[in-house]
Design a protein that fits this description.
Length: 529
């Protein structure tokens, strides 16, 4: 710990010496034959007050012990995982490389610093009206040169042993030729594309290069969806097969665009996330069946076709362990389960907007029985949930293995919480969720003190279990609790402080939580409108 403390003091001393000035770091001596890119963008020092203090000669940082220099270097590094390349601005890694020769050696020997980067336009996409047009036009060529030079510099030092992660948007267009030229040197390529009006075709032209090593693709959109979607469909290179053969992760985060890739086989795909509306029909089932290695699927707007509930043979996704289904108004995510057999499923999340009061809970039990799977993590989130409907989930026999439960609704009331009390007589002598260890509740509007009492009943020591549970096997001890209480309307109590109203609404619960926390239970709670 002593070197770290000393390093922090040294760093604070360095920063205090430049207080009132912009930081200026002298470049190291250029070596013959080396690129001039790095030394081309060095900020100059200038005083920020009229009477600057006299300069004091300090010892060079190179005389510090190497171990201490390393500690100072690590403290000075930015915490961001992604290197942001902006025109006319050298990013922190290059700035630090100019301090001393030892730091320069560290910069280029740490492969973790060269794993990913993104390019952003320093002035943004909108130009202020006060700026002269000729000034903007005059800087465009220099901006492009800056981005291209820094991008090539990054590629020259990127590690071939780790995936090359690149985030591209409209500000990246000047550097696209450099990116295209270097794609072939990437053993594993991860792309995140932010498509916008006027830039979609240029960004997707990347797929006309060597993208056979593509293993990760994330697509988001900004701007008019129809124009962007037309540009996507008018780019044949995007749909060619080579770069889909090794893809492992696909995230289509475009809420307003249809998912256009159902006809493309992706045999290595392991993770699929689709934010746009997608229909559970034969085309989607065929697409999923072509990806036998799928382990995680998220559908954020799944629609059910007219034939979803008909007597069709469920198809198997053998390795899927995590399945998130969200349905908009009028669709019940439980109905979608009739189409699947999931023998490896351990984590299931079901959420919906407004659905009918009649829910198909039997579909969940039937799917688990048919698949012979064991649910360990279960999430139910419904924005218009009647408070009694959670009983339909919690009383199912398939919920017995669940060790982590997350329930969210506009108003979770006493009936749901009472079901969690481990009393054998609750449901035909059966303790519900006997393996529950983590409980996460959103928008609780329960009687003050009830939740703390129920949680305490799941923290009983083994010595008292036989008496309390009438000879039945005691439930697992709850280890974590996360709860958001529904904040009561404070307009009727405007004379009281806001925080006081929050605490008065569940003061008994909070007092009980303090005791449970001292007993070793991990607890977090909050209040929400």
């Amino acid at each position: 710990m002593r070197p770290q403390i000393t390093a922090r003091r040294v760093l604070n001393a360095l920063l205090s010496r430049v207080k009132g000035f912009s930081i200026s770091i002298s470049p190291t001596t250029k070596q013959p034959g080396k690129s001039n890119i790095v030394s081309s963008y060095i900020p100059s020092a200038h005083p920020t007050r009229e009477d600057p203090e006299p300069l004091v000669r300090h010892a060079h940082i190179n005389i510090l012990p190497y171990e201490l220099l390393t500690q100072v270097f690590l403290l000075a590094l930015p915490e961001d995982d992604i290197t942001v390349i902006r025109p006319f601005t050298r990013y922190p890694q290059l700035t630090l490389s100019h301090v001393c020769s030892r730091w320069r050696h560290l910069i280029f020997s740490m492969e973790s610093l060269w794993k990913q980067f993104t390019m952003k336009d320093e002035e943004g996409s909108k130009v202020l009206g006060k700026r002269m047009l000729d000034r903007v036009m005059g800087r465009s060529r220099a901006r492009a040169a800056s981005l291209s030079g820094l991008t090539q510099f990054w590629f020259d030092r990127a590690s071939s042993s780790a995936p090359t992660i690149i985030l591209l948007g409209s500000a990246s267009l000047p550097a696209m030729p450099v990116v295209m030229k270097n794609l072939g040197r990437c053993d594993s390529l991860a792309l995140a594309l932010a498509l916008g009006e006027g830039s979609t075709k240029d960004l997707l032209s990347l797929f006309s290069g060597d993208t056979s090593s593509l293993i990760f693709l994330s697509v988001t959109t900004r701007g008019h969806s129809r124009t962007i979607y037309k540009d996507i469909m008018d780019t044949p290179a995007f749909f060619s097969s080579p770069h889909w053969q090794n893809l492992r992760v696909l995230k289509w985060l475009c809420e307003s665009l249809p998912f256009p890739l159902l006809d493309i086989p992706m045999p290595q795909l392991g993770v699929l996330q689709v934010s746009s509306t997608i229909t559970l029909n034969k085309d989607l089932k065929l697409f999923l069946s072509r990806s036998p290695n799928l382990t995680r699927i998220t559908f954020e707007d799944l629609q059910l076709s007219a034939t979803t509930n008909s007597s069709v043979t469920p198809f198997v996704i053998p390795n899927l362990h995590t399945f998130h289904i969200h349905c908009m108004t009028g669709n019940d995510p439980l109905d979608a389960l009739a189409s699947f057999t999931l023998p490896s499923l351990t984590c299931l999340a079901l959420s919906s907007e407004a659905t009918s009061l009649s829910r198909n809970y039997e579909a969940l039990e039937a799917m688990v029985t048919r698949s012979s799977c064991h649910l360990e993590i279960f999430t139910a989130c419904d924005s218009s949930f009647p408070p009694t409907d959670f009983a339909g989930y919690l009383t199912l026999p398939c919920m017995k293995p669940v060790r982590k439960l997350h329930l969210t609704a506009p108003c979770i009331q006493d009936r749901t919480i009472e079901l969690l009390r481990p009393i054998p007589s609750t449901i035909k002598g059966r303790i519900l969720l006997p393996n529950l260890k983590v409980l996460d509740l959103g928008k609780c509007s329960t009687t003050d003190g009830l939740l703390a009492d129920v949680v305490a009943s799941r923290r009983v020591l083994d010595a008292h279990a036989e008496v309390l549970y009438g000879g039945c096997d005691p439930p697992a001890r709850l280890e974590e609790l996360h709860v958001a209480f529904k904040l009561q309307d404070i307009r009727q109590s405007m004379h009281m402080p806001h925080v006081a109203v929050e605490r008065l609404s569940h003061i008994r619960d909070i007092m009980g939580f303090n005791s449970l926390f001292e007993g070793g239970l991990a607890i977090s709670f909050s209040f929400r409108l």
